């Protein structure tokens, strides 16, 4: 498994936790939390049970990773809890970023970074001041979270977006954002750091939305057209996108487009969904602006942007139970959330390799000891 380098990098944390005069290095406690959580032992009590059940395997794995013999390897649930509270999230995050840097294999033609936020619902209810709204930068083709930033409430999400753009290498990447990120300052920042933008436009930009609606008459003349049809889950969905590359003259005559740095194309996406069971049809119109001219790339990127919802946020809730968490003290929510994303990445890789569903993969992993987990080939 490709995790040893991530765990080893945390050896720079020299702090230790103790219970009943026994001392445990933080990398060991994080190692226990990882091995236990990916095997569906996600409470402090079951993590303690996991460590006790696999004491010899953990001892041998720790020696392999760090070259040190452990005196004690069976911490209490309180010790594991305290460890996740005190591990500095920024240190954990930097270790994570160093780890994934070795995994990145970009396809330059499809290089896309989706940025969107998700609130850990249970954590928010317990403590309104906890940084429970986590904004993720996600590579949909890699199924990999590139970085995260946490804020107390969704209203602060724009600040997180701008911080992520500053810390990531987005050179030549297409940055896709929903309407909350559709801001002129964001578009300018994306261009400044060497990327391209694809922004959904809604009513929070009323003047821009109005000009988009005015620009797309019913006729298809003069527009590039992309179409796609899907059948699944008892419904038929047809997507059709009209695209228009803006000429210098069109920009000069516009009343909203010219205010957006680097804007090169505008897009109207029509989604028609037909439910075969109910016989009902729904039609939805969406509008986008982009700094790229390639309509096929934009069409594909709009579809791929939803992977941050379907392949990340949805799975964190359904398979890792994130919305039910009540972990709220110190750095725990942010550290556990990042740990869950590591778990999900590995689960998805094993799902593809083994041809099994994620619940079946989780059942398989629950039968393995820590040494066997780290010997898996992803």
TrEMBL record:
InterPro entries xrefs: ISAs1_transpos, Transposase_11, Transposase_11-like, YbfD_N
Residues in the signal sequence: none
Domain H repeat-associated protein N-terminal: 8-100
Annotated GO MF terms: DNA binding; transposase activity
One Gene Ontology biological process: DNA transposition
Short name of any one Pfam family annotated for the protein: DDE_Tnp_1_assoc
Record field: transmembrane: none
Residue ranges of domain Transposase IS4-like in the record: 110-323
Matching PANTHER family: H REPEAT-ASSOCIATED PREDICTED TRANSPOSASE (PTHR30298), PROTEIN YBFL-RELATED (PTHR30298:SF0)
Record-given protein name: ISAs1 family transposase
């Amino acid at each position: 498994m490709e995790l040893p380098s991530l765990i080893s990098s945390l050896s720079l944390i020299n702090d230790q936790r103790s219970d009943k005069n026994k001392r445990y290095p933080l990398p060991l406690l994080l190692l226990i939390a990882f091995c236990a959580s990916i095997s569906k032992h996600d409470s402090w009590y079951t993590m303690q049970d996991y460590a006790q059940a696999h004491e010899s395997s953990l001892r041998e794995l720790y020696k392999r990773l760090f070259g040190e013999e452990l005196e004690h390897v069976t911490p209490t649930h309180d010790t594991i809890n305290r460890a996740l509270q005190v591990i500095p999230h920024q240190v954990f995050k930097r270790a994570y970023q160093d780890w994934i840097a070795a995994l990145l294999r970009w396809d330059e033609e499809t290089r896309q970074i989706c940025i969107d936020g998700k609130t850990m619902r249970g954590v928010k209810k317990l403590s309104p001041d906890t940084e429970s709204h986590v904004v993720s930068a996600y590579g949909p083709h890699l199924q990999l979270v590139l970085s995260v930033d946490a804020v107390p409430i969704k209203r602060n999400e724009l600040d997180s977006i701008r911080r992520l753009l500053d810390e990531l290498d987005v050179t030549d990447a297409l940055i896709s954002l929903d309407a909350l990120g559709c801001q002129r300052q964001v578009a300018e920042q994306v261009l400044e750091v060497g990327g391209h933008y694809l922004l959904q436009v809604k009513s929070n930009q009323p003047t821009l939305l109005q000009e988009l609606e005015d620009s797309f008459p019913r006729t298809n003349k003069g527009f590039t057209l992309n179409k796609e049809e899907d059948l699944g889950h008892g419904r038929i969905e047809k997507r059709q996108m009209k695209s228009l590359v803006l000429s210098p003259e069109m920009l000069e005559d516009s009343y909203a487009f010219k205010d957006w740095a680097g804007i090169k194309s505008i897009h109207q996406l029509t989604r028609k969904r037909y439910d075969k069971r109910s016989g009902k049809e729904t039609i939805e119109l969406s509008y986008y602006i982009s700094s790229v001219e390639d309509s096929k790339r934009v069409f594909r990127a709009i579809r791929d942007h939803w992977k941050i919802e379907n392949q990340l946020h949805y799975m964190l809730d359904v398979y890792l139970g994130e919305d039910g968490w009540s972990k709220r003290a110190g750095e725990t929510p942010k550290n556990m959330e990042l740990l869950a994303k590591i778990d999900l990445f590995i689960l998805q890789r094993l799902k593809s390799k083994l041809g099994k569903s994620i619940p079946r993969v989780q059942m398989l992993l629950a039968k393995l000891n820590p040494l066997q987990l780290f010997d898996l080939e992803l």
